Amino acid sequence: MMEPQPKELIDQVTDLPTVPLLLQRMRQQLATHGYLSVLSINVMQSGQVERVTGWKAFDAIVRDVGRFLASIKTLHLRREDFVSEVMISGNAFVVLLAAPRRAQQIDLADLQAVRDRLAGKLRHFLARRLPPEISERFTCCVGASLVRNEPEMRPERLVYRALDDAQADSVEERRRAAQRHIVELRDVLTAGLVRSVYQPIVNLERPDVLGWEALSRPTGGTFENIEQLFKAAYEDQSIWTLERLCREKAMEGLGSLGPGELLFLNVEPDSIDDPQFRSPQMLRMLEQAQLSPDRVVLEMTEHASVRDFTAFRQTLTYFRSLGFRLAIDDMGSGYSALASVAEIQPEFIKIDMSLIREVDVRPLKRELVDTIARFARRTGIQVIAEGIETARELEVLVELDVPLGQGYLFARPSAPPPQPDLALLSHRSKRPGPQTPQGPGPHTP
Predict the structure, then answer these.
(1) What domains lie within the chain, and their CATH numbers?
(2) Number of C-beta neighbours around residue 3 at 10 A
(3) SS3 102
């Protein structure tokens, strides 16, 4: 059990000891055992994460990581190991490993094995703690260093060498992992190892289907989800190639749509500038799938950054002139949504599942959904509630006059497109449902 520490030496976000206590412990271990074995844990992020989550939510994530590191001592580390929070690069933590019980000092191979186990546990923790679109913007790297005492060198220099070496090892591990992912990504792109599944978007006021969202899934490499694949594509600057592959697979597996049904295609804003996306080849692909542009909705996530809205609007005007419609995904999961709605002027906005989950028991969520729905009705935008999982969530959304929805309550994504369960909607009156605008909507810039 760690002894009580002065309050001023404890980090206010993570509740962990800070650098002064760490350095003191390292000097003691160096003097007693003649060596230092250190792990450096770096939770790195892209520049967009805090903007999307907000600084309070980001601090909560950092706090959870610190508590997780402290909690795993009895399971994967030892009570004698010392966990500290340090701000070396981004959000960094250090574990000072105590001397082994049966050996004079830890072996480098054993230290690296501990490093790899801890890295795996941390990645798993972040994947469970955060939604995919956020967790995949974090890179959790663990580095290790083993420094032996050198009598002619000051202890402070050895202490800082151990910290620097562990930090450098974590950065190198990040580079190696990124390189492995890029090699696997190129194999995926070459072999076309992506498939599409489809989830229905249903009218909540009458039991029928508005359209289908095509969702991409990796089928090769060690990628656990599509977010990891896109992260590697951005690092490799091959996002256009991956987007082309995803569009091709979405068209291939769709089959025939019902009368008036739409296809929702996820599009990264960066891909709007892809010349192939704007070429006749795209229209030929739609023709082969027996689709016209006015039956395709380009769905853009607010998590992606638009650097030049003026040029972006000009490109969107071109797509609208062909008949495509636009949707903003994940409304309510970040801070850029209102600006995106004003600039893009979409025909559809999709309320993020984080707001829909437990909307029946969380009054604040209900008020937020109600506000979005009323805003959309006044501006002529169609609202789609994502992630509906319970009958009670559905009831509340209908009470709030949210016209469209999708989620596991109706069907899980699958291929070919599944038959949705509309039993919960069948008893509702057949009053007119949300009208689907034909061609470019009233928001055309």
Answers:
(1) 8-182 (3.30.70.270), 192-425 (3.20.20.450)
(2) 4
(3) coil
What's the rounded Cα separation, in Å, for the pair 218 and 189? 10
Residue range 412-425: average pLDDT? 92
Burial 223-236 (b: 16+ CB within 10 A, else e): beebbbbbbbbeeb
**Nearest alpha-carbon partner for 95 in 136, 51, 169, 145:** 145
Question: Could you tell me the two tokens for 322?
Answer: 């062909």
Q: Looking at residues 304-329, what average pLDDT do you find?
A: 83
Quick one: how far is CA 426 from the chain centroid? Answer: 35
Say what the pLDDT of residue 436 is: 46
pLDDT of residue 17: 74
On the question of pLDDT at 205 being above 80, the answer is yes
pLDDT at residue 393 tops 90: yes
The whole-number pLDDT of residue 140 equals: 78
Contact residues for 83 (Cβ-Cβ < 8 A; gap 6+): 16, 17, 66, 69, 70, 73, 77, 93, 94, 95
Neighbouring C-beta atoms of residue 326, cutoff 10 Å = 22
Q: Report, as an integer, the average pLDDT of 123-148.
A: 77
Q: Residue 437's pLDDT is what?
A: 46
Tokens of 60: 């909560």
Q: Do the beta carbons of residue 356 and residue 322 sit within 8 Å? A: no
3-state secondary structure of 33: helix
Q: What is the DSSP letter of 259?
A: T
With a pLDDT cut of 70, the percent of the chain lying above it is: 80
β-pairing, 325-331 vs 209-218, is unpaired
Strand partners, 236: none
Cα of first residue to Cα of last residue in the chain, in angstroms, is 64
Torsion-angle region of residue 255: left (phi > 0), alpha (psi -120 to 50) or beta?
Answer: left
For 367, residues 6+ apart whose C-beta sits below 8 A from its C-beta are none
Q: Could you give the 3-state DSSP secondary structure of residue 430?
A: coil
